[in-house]
Amino acid sequence: xxxxxxxxxxxxxxxxxxxxxxxxxxxxxxxxxxxxxxRSYSDDDLGWLVFLTRLRTTGMPIRMMREYAQLRxxxxxxxxxxxQMLFEHRASVRARIAELQSCLEVLDYKISHYxxxxxxxxxxxxx
Amino acid sequence: xxxxxxxxxxxxxxxxxxxxxxxxxxxxxxxxxxxxxxRSYSDDDLGWLVFLTRLRTTGMPIRMMREYAQLRxxxxxxxxxxxQMLFEHRASVRARIAELQSCLEVLDYKISHYxxxxxxxxxxxxx
DNA sequence: GTAGAAGCTGGAGTGCGCTCCAGGTCAACC
DNA sequence: GGTTGACCTGGAGCGCACTCCAGCTTCTAC
Lengths: 127, 127
Fold this sequence. Notes:
homodimer, 127 residues, mainly alpha, 2 domains, 3-stranded antiparallel β-sheet, 3 strands, DNA-binding
């Protein structure tokens, strides 16, 4: 199967402009072109795009995604380094989750504080 | 207790420049000044700064923090709206955590895939 | 009374990650 | 064969959240 840029955008959740941008900065390999010079994405291309969106969602900076892409391009010999990158990135995602969870506690506390205020206010009225 | 801008920066984890920037854009009230015209932060000021850093850490955009700050400035009458904001923000933080966790699964999968490759490689050598 | 550290102001600059635009090509349908 | 719509390119522009700078003042210590 091949896909137009609009279909690739739809499938990956990236915009058409972002797809061209990613190609320009070397994050994705230039896809094949059809007879009219238009981009024609393969299933593999789409798989890579989707994986990239996962990395992006987890906050990996583009320069790191590009580094990963370049290693991938150099083949199996770089598998260890790529694994290492994902390993470290996973640790940072876990740390980020922990950080968010600790902030959630602050939010919970604040919200319960506001609820207490409301409560006091209602008691004040009904008293 | 009062604190110099350097101490406020130290305590909040924000940079001195960021403190002045937050003041400029109306995220924090201008603190008191000492006899020489220098900023002199109170414990309350610091508490607010620390809370702001929690909001920022959880990804609340500055314009929303500013809205919150403005409501806070208008006193108890806006408590309900502030609570509502925190409530909604908490939901978005939870959603963000869920999103990160689902991406973690993808990372786990990818990493285990690399481990499998390593394994196969070693078997290939020792065979 | 002078050197050095810390702070002040207004404004310019930065890095990131897109996003938009003008002006052109190409294919398909009426 | 003319219009429409999707796609093309190179390059400019944008929003966010800072960060840095020049040139000045003020306090502290010697």
